[in-house]
Amino acid sequence: MVFMINGNSLRIISANPANFAEFSLVTHLSAPPRVWKQEERGCEDAFVAMMKTFLLLILGLAASLQAQTSAPVSIDASKHPNLQAAFDAVPESGGLVTIPPGNYEITEPLRVKTAETRIVGGGAATHIINKNETGQPAIILRPANLDTEKKARLWRVQMADLRISGSEKSGDGIFAEGIQEIYLEGVSVDHHGGHGIVLKDCYEDPRVADCIITYNKKSGIEILGCHDIVVNANHFEENQDALRCVDAFNLCMNGNNIDDHLGNGVIIENTYGSVVSGNMIEECNGTAIILDRDCYGITLSANVIAHHLEGGIDLRDACGCTISANTFTIAHKFSVRVGKDSERNTISGNTFCNTYIGAGKDKRPAEHKTPMGIDEGTGVLVEGGVNGLNLNGNTFSGLSTAAVWSTGEVKNVLVTSNLCMDCGRKLAKNSAWLSFEQKTGVMIKDNLIESPSSAP
DSSP string spanning 93-122? Predict the structure, then answer.
C-alpha cells in the first residue's frame, strides 16, 4: 500500500494499480500561525473531529484495498494464453486454477510457485503432455526462492482430476519440493522417463490418494525426506518400482493395488514408525516389499503378496518389525527373508502357500515355458547372524522349500505353534521342514507337522 500527496490531494494506491482512492486535502500549511479567539474554539474542535473522522476513513479504505489485493482468486486457464500464464496469475494468497478438458502440450516444465493453490482438471480428458526430450519434469511444485532460501516452503498445494503423460526422454511427471501438506488426488501419471511423482522434503503431511501411476521408467512414487505420509487407494502398474520411501518417517500405505512391476514393489529405507497394510502386490520381477538401511518399528500386515519372481518380503536391515496376517502365494525364492542385519522381529499369523485349490489339485502346472507360469510356494529364509526372531502361528503349505530354514548360525529364535503341510516338495526325501544349522539358541516347540502318510 502506497500513500502519495500530490498538491491538495491524498492518493492511496494498492499493489494492484487499478485500485486507488483519492481525497482532497484542506491544508493551511502556507497560512501564518494564528491565535484562535474564544468564539473560534468551537470551530477548532469541529475541525479536529472532522480530521479524526477523515483519518479513520482513510484507514478503513486502506484495509479494504489490502483485503481486495490478498484475497484468493479463481482462475479459468482457458482465459490465459497458456497454462504457465494461468499459474503465474495466482497471487501469493493462492487460489483455484481450473483447466478445462483438452490436450495441453508443453516442452518445458510448468512451475507452480504459490501456496494455498489448487489445480483441478476435468478428469482424464484434461491431458498435459510433456514433449520435453531433455529429462525435464512436466510439473514442478516448488518455492521460487528455494535455491537461495533453503528453509523456504509453500503450504497446501493441491492437484486433482487430470492426466499428465510423458515419454522415455522426458523427466518426472510431478516434481514437488518443499511443499507442506501437499495433496494429490485423482491424478493419472504415466509414461514418464523419470519417476511418476517425486516428493522431496515435503516434510509435513504429504498425501497421495486415488491416483493411477503407470508405465514410468523409474519409481511410481519417490518419497525423499518426508514425514507423516499417506499413500492410499492408488493404482500402480508397470513402473520400475511402485514406491520408494527413503530417509522418512511414518509412512501410512494402505489399500493400494500394485501390479506387474519390472523391479520391486515397495522399498523402504532408513524409515521408522510406518505401516503397510491392506495392499494387493502382484507380479514383481523382483520382491514385493523391501526394508533396508536401519528400518525399525514398522508393521507389514494384511497384504496379499502374490506371484513374485524373487520374493515376498525382504527384511534386509530391519529391527523391531512385525509381519502379520499376510498371504504369500507363488513367491519363487522366498516368501520372507530375514537378513543377517535384521534383529528382534516377529512373523505371526501369516499364510504361506502355492496354488493349491483342494482335492489334491494345484491351479498351475509344475512346469511351464516361462517362470511366471509355474506353481510355486516358499517359506521363511533366515540368514546366518540373525539375533531375535519370533515365528508363531503361521500356516505353511504346498511349498517347494522347507517352511523355515537358516543358512548359518542364529540366536534367540523362537518357532512355535505353526502348521506345516505338504512342504519340501523339491527337497531331498525326509528333509526337515523346520531346519536350522544348530540346535542352541533356537527353540522349536508345539508345531504341527504333517506326516508323510497323511500328505495328499
Answer: T-EEEE--SEEEEESS-EEE--SSEEEE-S
Could you give the count of Cα atoms lying within 13 Å of 113 in the half-sphere of its Cβ?
Answer: 14
The stretch 33-48 carries a mean pLDDT of 51
Share of the chain above pLDDT 70, in %: 84
**Secondary structure of 186-230 in the HEC alphabet?**
EEEEECCCCCCEEEECCCECCEEECCEEECCCCCCEEEECCEEEE
Q: Which of 31, 53, 70 is the last residue of a domain?
A: 70
- For the chain, how many structural domains are there in total? 2
Question: What's the CA gap between 448 and 456, in Å, rounded?
Answer: 16
Residue with cell 474564544: 38
Percent residues over pLDDT 90 in the chain: 81
Q: What is the pLDDT of residue 48?
A: 54
CB atoms within 10 A of CB 261: 27
Residue 174 lies inside a defined structural domain of this protein: no
- DSSP assignment string, 145-160: TTTT-TT--EE--EEE
| pLDDT computed for residue 451 by the predictor | 79
